[in-house]
Specification:
The chain is an alpha/beta fold and 200 residues long. It has helices spanning 11-17, 59-65, 91-94, 112-130, 133-143, 168-177, 189-197; strands at 2-6, 22-25, 46-47, 55-56, 67-69, 97-101, 109-110, 148-152.
């Protein structure tokens, strides 16, 4: 079994509720191999959706790099950021966010939820399948007999909830358990079409 909990909670309080559980920090603050599950981790060679031959260091660099603001367009320089720092693009410096560009050379802007479905989720899936598959397989096997608590700063597990960032820990859980948005329980047809188009 896999459960999502806030990284901000005290470990002892989580373990009171789940005494036999394994705590797994999957944030950029992790001190073991699980840091590779962070969207900020610079794996390198990650395809930028809808952008032929372009790759980026990490998922967050793609998400932030394709974001369009009132005062600034896409930032392809972020695609090369391998420091896990200075990746976020703020409203204070760039103005009101207008959406995410559907590829660096596209004229089409995607709304927040649509960008989540067409850019963030499939990109993170690519990382799960191509960069951390051995970690995911070990976690899948362990979850069959043990309770694993994935610690994330964001705990939003609703893909369509725009009020909070989506938990990448939830995407790990969803991928391992074969549930939406990576499984058949409530699969989004448009997303499935996009994954097929990109071979993801």
């Amino acid at each position: 079994m896999i459960i999502i909990e806030s990284h901000k909670k005290k470990p002892q309080n989580i373990l009171k509720k789940y005494p036999e559980a394994i705590l797994a920090d999957v944030t950029s603050k992790a001190t073991d191999d699980l840091v590779k599950l962070s969207p900020f981790y610079p794996h390198g060679g990650i395809p930028v959706p809808f952008s032929e031959d372009l790759t980026a260091t990490c998922v967050e660099a793609i998400w932030q790099g394709l974001k369009v603001f009132e005062d600034n367009d896409v930032d392809i320089h972020l695609f090369k950021n391998d420091t896990m720092k200075n990746i976020k693009r703020s409203v204070r410096k760039n103005g009101k966010p207008l959406g995410h560009r559907k590829g660096v050379n596209s004229n089409e802007l995607l709304g927040y939820i649509e960008a989540r479905k067409q850019i963030y989720i499939p990109t993170y899936r690519w990382v799960l399948e191509n960069k951390v598959s051995s970690i995911i397989e070990r976690m899948r096997e362990a979850s069959k007999t043990k309770t694993i608590i994935l610690l994330d700063y964001n705990t939003n597990q609703n893909v369509d909830d725009a009020s909070k960032p989506l938990s990448h820990a939830f995407l790990i859980k969803a991928y391992i358990e074969g549930i939406y948005p990576y499984g058949n329980k409530k699969e989004d047809k448009n997303e499935k079409k996009e994954l097929t188009l990109f071979g993801w």
